[in-house]
Sequence to fold (156 residues):
Amino acid sequence: MLQNGEGLEGVEWGNAWDLRDPSQPHTNWFVGDHPAIPRDCLRFLQHGDPLTGSGANGAIPSPVETVSHLCLKWFQHHPDDDPAWGATKPSSTGRTLSLLAAPGAFALTFRRGARQLDLVLEQAGDFVLWAEGLEHSWRVLAPSIVLTVRWSPLTP
Fold:
């Protein structure tokens, strides 16, 4: 994955395969509620029911630990796609994860005020996850299959 610019608060990126716990090579969960996912990262989502207040070990989950409005998109992007599709988007809401499902080259730019971060997903498993309040745009540098998941925090 190529990176240009400083990290921005509310953006995490990496490669899903690199996050794999070597002591548990049979699993590769990297979003959700799993011991391999740090509780303080955007990828952590605690299981629980906000309506009854029951979470893991009876804990009451916080609003960011449960989700609503879950959407999943799989798309084959090509360099000749209409550039307007990836033009500057409005400020993001909720959380969005884009994962490159096969080798390709898919560039994303994130902005918060005057700060900018450019990332290029190149290897299968490269991903970026961003929180609300970020402007973003994307462009296709080489044919790319991208899986995108979007969700919103659920407030009890």
Q: What stands out?
A: The longest strand covers residues 67-77.
